[in-house]
Predict the structure.
Amino acid sequence: MKIKRKASMVVLSAALMLGGSIALAPTASAVGSSACQFNSPDVNFKVSTSGARFRTGPGKRYRAIGTLYRGDSFRYFCRTRGFEKSWSYGKILKRTTTGIHAGTRGWVYSKYLD
């Protein structure tokens, strides 16, 4: 019985440590503007398509935070390279159709912005 209790404590400790590290993990916009190559004065855009993924970094390999739809508001701060085939970093201006909160920062493929 003593071994089971010790094993339970180890599992519980590991779970708490893992949970703590998740709570301290970087925000969804962890890549942030560090990946930007072109800065811009803040400009507001509307999403021009339905089904654009809003991501934690500039590329498909990054986790999707949610989906943007035509008319969702996005404030653009910077992008990865020229507008064609680039990713734009910014924040959501008001809660999106799919429930992404205003102020959430992330990346969207630039061709989906008007």
About this structure: The two ends are 65 Å apart (CA to CA).
